[in-house]
Write a structure and sequence with these properties.
The protein contains twelve helices and twelve strands. With 380 residues, the protein is an alpha+beta fold. 41% of the residues are buried.
Amino acid sequence: MLRMALQNLLRKKSRTILAMLALIIGVMTIISLISITEGVKGRVTDVVSQMKGIVVTQEDVFMPTLSRLETSDINKIESIPGVSVAAPRIVGQIMLLKEGEKRSMTAQPFSIYGLDPAKEALTKKGSLPTGGTILRGRALKSGDTKAVVLDEDTAKDEKKLVGSKIELGGNKYTVVGLAEAVGGAGRMAVVPISEARDILEVPTDKITGIYVETNNPEDDKKIARLIEAKIDDSSAQTTEDFAQQLMGMLSNIDAFLWVISTISIVVGGLGIINTMLMSVRERKKEFGVLKAIGWTQENILQLVMYESILIGILGGIIGVTLGWIAVQIAKPLLGISIMTVTPSLAIQATLFAIIVGVIGGIYPAWETSRLDPIKAMSDR
């Protein structure tokens, strides 16, 4: 019966393709949009696995780049028993322009991480803000000026090697190291904290955040509360707390994106209903003959449902394939290297398409199964 259902769909190829089209577009939309949040989730997991500490920022600030703490807060935190190191951070974004360009519509956001090399060297995670390793060259060291470490993806995009020059904030910086592209930082440049002040125009008495490590990671939550009590208007979160918050926010974004994608899928379901109704009405005589030779209502219902389910399966598989191709094309064009099509995402999108195929076939199958064989064969 499955072979017969497939043959029925192949009889009217153009109509079958039109029925699948909205379904394919919906699945492509799911894959393309959700791949971004899936990628971010993967990067957050990478960061948390490598970093066990506390991130201190200004309270009630939506983005870390908008946070402002006092430089003197570093000494206050280091005086808390159990704190092993408090490393200051200045984080922000600039638009990275091509060589010689003053302004460009193609410029992309570029993260600047200002670190104190001496303090970072004392941390368990190493010299990079998101963990990872230096692949070529070296990390920043105390006394460096106009020096920068780039992540490997940025270095590849900008065609930079160790020893190359790159313009940041109107000044030339020498690339001293290339870092593993790990964590959720995306395109980034790591510079000495004094250089970050100049690039991002942060006053000398201000920093955007502090990364804190403790002697005993099990005390992180307790020390985070002590930091909040000691530093006015501060928010101290363990990396695990921060990851959970971010994962929750990404889940909400996922739900919103699924709703948007569902609109296309629903249109696809309507297309399946329309196609199957037209198909079964054109084949009334055929179904009448099948009933006359002994097919039951259940057999007819099963045949039509098989056809709609096959449309869902084919639409899902084609949509996932085209979505994956779209993601591979979009990554270099949009500079969003974190886009990831996970197996679970592909399976979810395909199952969603199959469910829509099932729902889309219920009414046409029910209507067809109720046909009177004599009337059906006499219709012209």
